[in-house]
Write a structure and sequence with these properties.
By secondary structure, the protein is an alpha+beta fold. It has a single domain, classed as Jelly Rolls. Helices cover about 20% and strands about 45% of the residues. It contains three helices and nine strands; from the N terminus they run αβββαββββαββ. Strands 1, 2, 3, 4, 5, 6, 7, 8 and 9 form a nine-stranded antiparallel β-sheet that branches. About 5% of the residues have low confidence.
Length: about 170
């Protein structure tokens, strides 16, 4: 009986470590990019909305040998914003940005943010939230909206590309 009591914690440890290794084997990334042309930025706080993003997640899941119904955990690994037009433009006008994700009017949540935008750069890395994003990436489309705080007027159109990497873990069963 004492041997069983001594072996039980060892067996539990092996099961726990084994499950972590299986999760690692069933984890992959899904990269999504989108560009949006912003006509004007006013000083203060304001919204920026983009067209819906087509996820193509079913194809990504299939390429990683899984299906939508087996996806059990999706989180944002990283997100960057890059000014692609006009050339040489930077984020000096931007103080803060919050990016939200939604598939409908009732499920908008904070996806990533940058509360202290660096100056003299045309690419910024946002800080992802820890939100579970399963329903958003499993959906055929989702929408990204941003709320910005700007310190000056930008009266000419410019284009920003968002590059997001989602970490996806699928269930083996």
């Amino acid at each position: 009986m004492k041997k069983i009591l001594l072996l039980a914690p060892l067996v539990l440890l092996l099961v726990f470590v084994g499950c972590k290794k299986i999760d690692k084997l069933l984890t992959f990334n899904v990269d999504v990019s989108q560009s949006v042309t912003i006509p004007i930025i006013l000083p203060g706080t304001g919204p920026v909305s983009a067209d819906p993003v087509v996820t193509n997640s079913a194809n990504s899941f299939r390429n990683n040998k899984t299906t939508t119904d087996k996806v059990k955990n999706v989180s944002l690994d990283r997100m960057t914003l890059t000014i692609t037009d006009p050339a040489g433009a930077n984020f000096n006008f931007l103080d803060k940005v919050d990016v939200y994700i939604s598939t409908n009017a009732n499920n908008k949540i904070l996806l990533a943010q940058q509360t202290n935008v660096p100056k003299e750069v045309n690419t910024i890395m946002l800080v992802p939230t820890t939100a579970r994003l399963d329903e958003y990436l499993k959906s055929e489309t989702y929408t990204l909206d941003a709320i910005y705080t700007s310190n000056k007027l930008i009266a000419r159109p410019f284009t920003v590309r968002s590059d997001a990497t989602f970490k996806v873990t699928a269930d083996p069963l």
